[in-house]
Amino acid sequence: xxxxxxxxxxxxxxxxxxxxxxxxxxxxxxxxxxxxxxxxxxxxxxxxxxxxxxxxxxxxxxxxxxxxxxxxxxxxxxxxxxxxxxxxxxxxxxxxxxxxxxxxxxxxxxxxxxxxxxxxxxxxxxxxxxxx
Length: 132
Description:
Distance between the termini: 32 Å
Structural class: alpha+beta
Helix content: 25-40%
Order of helices and strands: HEEEHEEH
Strand content: 15-25%
Strand order of the largest sheet: 1-2-3-5-4
Radius of gyration: 14 Å
Number of strands: 5
């Protein structure tokens, strides 16, 4: 079982933002911006384009709902979406609140947040997600 599967199963702690039976969203622990969230399928799959068309479509719709919640919790111009996937062998989508396109440059310095800040951010997104 890979690290993201362990996170989705609750074996490794995370800052949960949203979930359903097929997908899980949690805060990136090395965020570009407050609200930077990862969306993963619960099923282990390394490459996002190895997912079935239906599963990929469902993941994008789930990510859209999470992005709407992020935008409510952290007002921004847009929530950017990126699929990189080389650092962890589990398909995932990055959702990043953006004021400018420069906010999505992954080589930018990462924020250093406390556990309390992470909890507060996750709670804001989770609340916005569940109140949809």
